Amino acid sequence: MCRGLETDVDTxxxxxxxxxxxxxxxxxxxxxxxxxxxxxxxxxxxxxxxPSDVDLPAAxxxxxxxxxAIHHLASAxxxxxxxGEWLNQKEDSMSxxxxxxxxxxxxxxxxxxxxxEMEEKLREETARRIRAExxxxxxTVVAKALATGTRVPELEEQLVAQRTKNFLLMETxxxxxxxxxxAAEVKEKYESLCRKxxxxxxxxxxxxxxxxxxxxxxxxxxxxxxxxxNRENQRRRQExxxxxxxxxxxxxxxxxxxISTVPSETEEVNSSKDQDSSDSVPTPLSHLPEPVxxxxxxxxxxxxxxxxxxxxxxxxxxxxxxxC
Length: 324
Description:
The chain is mainly alpha-helical. The chain has 2 domains: 17-148, no CATH class; 151-246. Helix content is 69%, strand content 0%. Mean pLDDT is 69; it is low at 1-74 and 308-315.
């Protein structure tokens, strides 16, 4: 960036102005860049030597400027008009010196800013040129190696790196393709399962509705049957109650009749016993078969064995009875 130049013009610095401007111009011309190249400079023509008869400013602040100094600080337009006309203008000589000094300093600042901009551009161009030279050198080495058939270590390293990168990219591509294929298969299976699920869900809903309807029908039928059974049980209970009441009434009447008929029956029994005792004759036991000495010697079925006899009877009991 441009650095502003500030100066305080007073009455005592008028004679030193040309020498300072000349020193600044010489310094800018000899200034070097950071890369060794000369920085652009500007052309500055030093003013002619001041005559010895230039009077210093008086104590009251007024000064008499010679024609040569006025001619040097005057502009081109003022010089075309001539020194006589310019001197005829009613203007303070100190203000003229101050205005010309400011104009010179402004031009110096502008030239210095332009010089700094040119230095920056020169540094950028130098760096660009260095990079271009390096690229040209590398390309020259590669071209010579290709022409002579030799190997370039740098190119070999780059080739190995590119091959490794290519191999990794191919492996990554294969893995991604496999993953995409598996994802497609999984997606297809998922869609098929979703379709089956929807079909089964529809079947389940229909069957559930049918079962619910059938369940309601069965509940209605069971309720009707339960009510009918209850009515039937109630009817039977009533019939049994009526029958039991009738039987109770009939039983009471029969008991009365039995009580009245008991004496007559006892008389009939006594009379029948007397008649039997008079008419009865003892019967012999000769018609019974002879007992077998050993039941096991019987050729037929062992009739006297326990399985063929009534419960609690055996051959000993039978022999004992027959022996009696």
